[in-house]
Amino acid sequence: MASLKELRASIGSVKSTRKITSAMKMVAAAKLRRAQTHAEAARPYAAAMRRMLGELAAAMSGEDGAPKLLAGSGEDRVHLLIPVTSDRGLAGGFNSNINRTTQLTIRRLQAEGKTVRLLPVGRKGFDFLSRDYADLIVDHVIGVGGKEVPFSAASDLGARITKLLENSQLDVCTVIYNRFQNVMSQVPTPLQLIPLGLDEAEAVSDSNAAQYEFEPDEQTLLERLLPRNLQVQIYAALLESAAGEQGARMTAMDNATRNAGKAIDRLTQKYNRTRQANITNDLIEIISGAQAV
């Protein structure tokens, strides 16, 4: 049985832990409000831009001279996966869900005979993938998360992807990120960036598809729009991941704070029972000694 001194030390330790987790919960809640606002503000713009260029990609499919950022290389051999995780832990299943989704995607693509390459964003994803798939990693990005997600991070990542595409080192590019739904729910979501297309939710019928007239000319406009669209889609994914990270951390720290409180109650109860037992034993010894005299 633990002594009173050991129990007091345990109670003090758990109380200190509860203070830390409670403070981390409040910090995450404050960051979440800002991150959620930014993520929700970016959604309509990213969706509209993707829809417009997705319709254009569908209209230009099969045409010669279609830009690679729009139509891809025309092959389906080399897949670049970009898993987006956080640099820090203590966020529940936020990072493990992305790592597991990425691992399953790698196994599926390799089973289909595809070549897989990885460009992890975030320290947790990079550390996880380095253990089993170090030979597949072509580059990595760390330090994107924080109080603010700079657009320069998306621009830099877009430039790296474009360089790999121009050097014929990828055919298909997909980003895997946690889409923020609410504080309790972040959904691992794969989003294909190259070639650009519409998913079932975004697709429109041919009769309703918009017809575009280009001003200036089509080539000049696409040269400006396509790199920007790639950056916008990446930036929207980074913002969603940032909001999801803070939501997951807030939930995890709330659970940890509650569990610490329950542990303190159990230790306090045990401490009181042990103290009562010690007092009882001391009284029995005193009474027994008095009777012996």
General description of the model:
This protein has 293 residues and is α/β, with parallel strands linked by helices. The protein has one domain (42-249): ATP synthase, F1 complex, gamma subunit (Pyruvate Kinase, Chain: A, domain 1, 3-Layer(aba) Sandwich), CATH 3.40.1380.10. The chain is 62% helix and 11% strand. It has helices at residues 4-60, 68-71, 94-111, 123-133, 151-166, 218-292, and strands at 78-83, 115-118, 172-182, 185-194. It has a 4-stranded mixed beta sheet, sandwiched between helices. Strand 3 and strand 4 form a beta hairpin. It starts with a helix and ends with a helix. Keywords: ATP synthesis, Cell membrane, CF(1), Hydrogen ion transport, Ion transport, Membrane, Transport.
Task: Work out the strand percent.
Answer: 5-15%
Shape: elongated
Q: What would CATH call the homologous superfamily?
A: ATP synthase, F1 complex, gamma subunit
Gyration radius, rounded = 28 Å
Q: Please, how many domains? A: 1
Please give the CATH architecture: 3-Layer(aba) Sandwich
According to CATH, the fold-level topology is Pyruvate Kinase, Chain: A, domain 1
Report the CATH C-level class: Alpha Beta
Number of helices: 6
Spatial sequence of strands, sheet with the most strands: 2-1-3-4
Query: What is the H-and-E element order?
Result: HHEHEHHEEH
- Helical content, roughly? 55-70%
